[in-house]
Design brief:
Order of helices and strands: EHEEEEEEEEEEEHEEEEEEEEEEEEEHH
Oligomer: single chain
Number of strands: 25
Number of helices: 4
Distance between the termini: 45 Å
Helix content: under 10%
Strand content: 35-45%
Mean pLDDT: 87
Structural class: mainly beta
Low-confidence stretches: 1-25
């Protein structure tokens, strides 16, 4: 990708850092990791309440935790745009929008475990006049810059992809979708990365009669979180992978009274689980994932 088209994070910080009327300036007062917020226990609490207005995505973080990304649908001309807040010393920068002038809409950012790729969803047309189609796009990190996003391989985007995707340390891409042949139910698929090219997506094999979507895969591929839609609205479930590669039947994670949670995400240090429950993102001690293991392993 050509460097002249890259999005320079540093330059955007200077030019756009004070131009966002929809985002609080209190970021400059936040000190410490995780925006300096009080850390949660095993009861979910809102994350960055009053600082960030969440609508359609959870968060994603750089491997060192000094950058937080999310999607903003509340300000500016874009239908949805990727936002970035950076830790600068002890404090945090005012959030800035990325890919301005490059994409008309971008949603659900996901940073790869090595911090070198950002996956996102967009309905931007590939040709003029194309009907609205949701696809997974990717941007490459070059030093301190993000390249202009491009759609991932058509073998992936031929599926009816929707909402959050996820990637493990090997570069394998997990996503919820209906197959190209059509269907009514979302299932979880994985497209393995071989020599830099995504292979034909495969159904993960943990499907049920419910819709499964918005996966998050552990970087080592040891477990996967997903949202299951049921008669009560939905819940987050976890499937663990055994040493022989068999996935357990997904078990429900106890998130108390958090309603209709989707878009699970685990911080790079493995300490906290985040979920979107509009209009908030909640976070909780990631021990709740391990607490579900006995139920999952009992379903093998």
């Amino acid at each position: 990708m050509k460097r002249r088209r890259a999005i320079c994070v540093a330059a955007l910080s200077i030019l756009l850092g004070h131009a966002l009327s929809g985002t609080s300036s209190d970021f400059s007062l936040q000190e410490g990791p995780y925006l300096g917020l009080p850390l949660p226990g095993k009861t979910p609490i809102p994350f960055a309440e009053g600082l960030i207005e969440f609508s359609h995505s959870s968060i994603s973080m750089s491997p060192d935790g000094t950058q937080i990304y999310w999607a903003d649908r509340t300000t500016g001309p874009m239908g949805s745009r990727i936002m970035l807040a950076q830790r600068l010393g002890d404090g945090w920068s005012t959030p800035i929008p990325l890919f301005v002038g490059v994409m008309s809409t971008a949603d659900c950012p996901v940073i790869s475990p090595d911090g070198m790729r950002m996956f996102m969803n967009s309905v931007d047309p590939l040709v003029e006049g194309e009907r609205e189609t949701e696809r997974i796009w990717v941007s490459e990190r070059i030093e301190d810059e993000w390249s202009a996003p491009v759609p991932v391989d058509s073998i992936v985007n031929a599926f009816g992809v929707h909402w959050q995707s996820s990637v493990d340390s090997a570069g394998n891409l997990y996503f919820g979708a209906v197959p190209p042949t059509g269907g009514d139910d979302d299932d979880i698929y994985v497209a393995h990365l071989v020599n830099g090219v995504f292979q034909a997506p495969e159904k993960l094999g943990i499907s049920s009669t419910l819709d499964e979507t918005t996966p998050f895969v552990d970087p080592r591929g040891e477990y996967i979180l997903l949202s299951r839609i049921d008669a009560t609205g939905g819940h987050i479930a976890v499937s663990f992978r055994s040493a022989d590669g068999v996935w357990t039947t997904p078990a429900k994670i106890d998130l108390g009274d958090v309603a209709y949670p989707v878009c699970p995400y685990v911080s790079p240090d493995g300490a906290y689980l985040f979920v979107l429950s509009r209009p908030n993102v909640y976070w909780v001690d990631a021990q709740v994932i391990e607490d579900a293991r006995p139920s999952a392993e009992g379903n093998l």
